[in-house]
Amino acid sequence: MAPGQGLEAVGSSATHNPDRTTRPTPPMPTVLALHLGGSTVHAAVASRGRIDLLALDDQSMHLPAPAPTDGPGLVRVLATAQARCLRVVDAVPDELVVVRPAGGVDDALLGEAARRARVPVPVVLEELRAVAALAAHGPAGVDPMLAPALGGIFWHRRGDAPTGPKPIVTREDLGVDAGRPERLPPAPSVVAVGPRTVFEEEAGTVRQRRMLPLPLLGVLVVVVLGVLTVLLVLPDDDRAIAPPPEPFPATTVPATTVPVITTVAPATALVSTTVLSTTIAVPTTAPTTTVAPPTSAEPLLAVDPVTGETFPPAPVPTEVPATEEQPDEGEEGTPTTTTSPPQLGTVTLSGVGLTADATTDDERLLALGDDGDLVLADLVTVLGEPVGDTGWATDGLCTPAEVRRLVWGDLEVVLARDAVEWPSRMAQWFVSGEDDASVSSLWTLERIGVGSTVADLRAAHGTSLSLEQPSDRDPAGWFDTELILGDGILGAVGNTTDTGRVLFMWAGSEDDACQRRFG
């Protein structure tokens, strides 16, 4: 009989037995455990009652570990692990356990990365607890590199390792008879001469030792009789009579009552109640008027990447939103006015690069770090030849060994390489100029560009927006749309109030590209 047929037969008999009730077994959740080590990332998965190691790559068992502060790298690791789990074991993880060493990735960064990667909210577990759970509940002899990932699965199933001393194992616990075989005592090591105990002596010797000699008995009788004779013959007058004891007068000690002082400290209860105020920004369709900063303040200036010329702050235009009239939609024949978002340009700005032909079938991402030659060829296809090109040269404002700045109107793209023979990469994009985004069509997907207001930034990015004002004498400020993961868009505004305008913005770390922030 085949194994599969045997299982079917057992299931059939259990179904037709009228005395037993068959209850469906609830499906076991699929649990994915990731170990974010110092240099590598390993994974284990528990699915359908099995625990297996999960290969994170077709060529190797592991992935390179991102830095504890590398938010985008952490997002890629989480998304790759979930995709590999679906591909290898054909199951989507229901729960995620992240095992980290001491001083590893921060909880806030890990939670934001999980939200970006669209994976379950992770349960963070310290590395020592996972290894202890594997030692207590799992098999022995596991490779130390794989122990934390497997330990995360065993910890999820069995909990922490038991603490305290281990119980004493007796012979009865092992099934062995605790009784010892009887054996004769060993012979004495020293040969005794003569009898060893009084029981081995002869009866005459024992009787002789127990009886006292007759002369000694006679002396004791004479002494006792002499003492009795002296006590009877002596008269009573010769005996010394002790004077009767004199009674001592009783002295009464007055009782002293010590007052008991009880001090009760007044109980003072201080209850501090803090009420958090919540402000919700409601976007409106009313025209927005931008107020220019005072002339006495020192505004932030943009620098031309090719000539080095300093751009003055742009004049303040009045933004009028585009409206469309749709008659016969309102009540009683009144036309309804609706606001439509501005059209995206050929290139759309993003914190991770540039998107060509966004919202179309030909949409593609030109990501920061991609091959520079391929990015340049794609940009020439959609934007034409650049109007400015510095060529490969050393730039004192840039960190890489050589950079190449390419300009298309208000858009500048920086390519970088660390050596002449090394391949180039896209390192940064920068947008500035006197024209607003409504003219240049250089927007983000949230319709943020040069000329947008601080109120638009708050409505688009919410609590993830970081806004700071470096100096009290200058109303201008800096903003960052994604401070936690570090892959947001940075820029400058004329002032930090809701009416402040975006002056310029960029994406790409200044540590790997060119400096944009001065002052």
Description:
The structure is a single chain. By secondary structure, the protein is an alpha+beta fold. Among the domains are: 31-158, 2-Layer Sandwich (Nucleotidyltransferase, domain 5), CATH 3.30.420.40; 310-507, no CATH class. It has ten helices and 23 strands. The strands form six sheets. An eight-stranded antiparallel β-sheet has the order 16-17-18-19-23-22-21-20, with helices on one face. Strands 1, 2, 3, 4, 5 and 6 form a six-stranded mixed β-sheet that branches. A three-stranded antiparallel β-sheet has the order 13-14-15, covered by helices on one side. Helix 2 packs across helix 3. 26% of the residues are buried.
Q: Mind sketching the topology for me?
A:
Elements: H1 3-16, E1 31-36, E2 40-47, E3 50-54, E4 63-64, H2 71-88, E5 95-100, H3 107-117, E6 123-126, H4 127-137, H5 147-158, H6 203-210, H7 214-233, E7 288-289, E8 302-303, E9 310-311, E10 318-319, E11 323-326, E12 336-339, E13 347-350, E14 353-356, E15 364-367, H8 372-383, E16 388-389, E17 402-408, E18 411-417, E19 425-431, H9 437-440, H10 454-461, E20 466-468, E21 477-480, E22 490-493, E23 502-507
Parallel strand pairs: 1-5, 5-6
Antiparallel strand pairs: 1-2, 2-3, 2-4, 7-10, 8-9, 11-12, 13-14, 14-15, 16-17, 17-18, 18-19, 19-23, 20-21, 21-22, 22-23
Helix pairs in contact: 2-3, 4-5
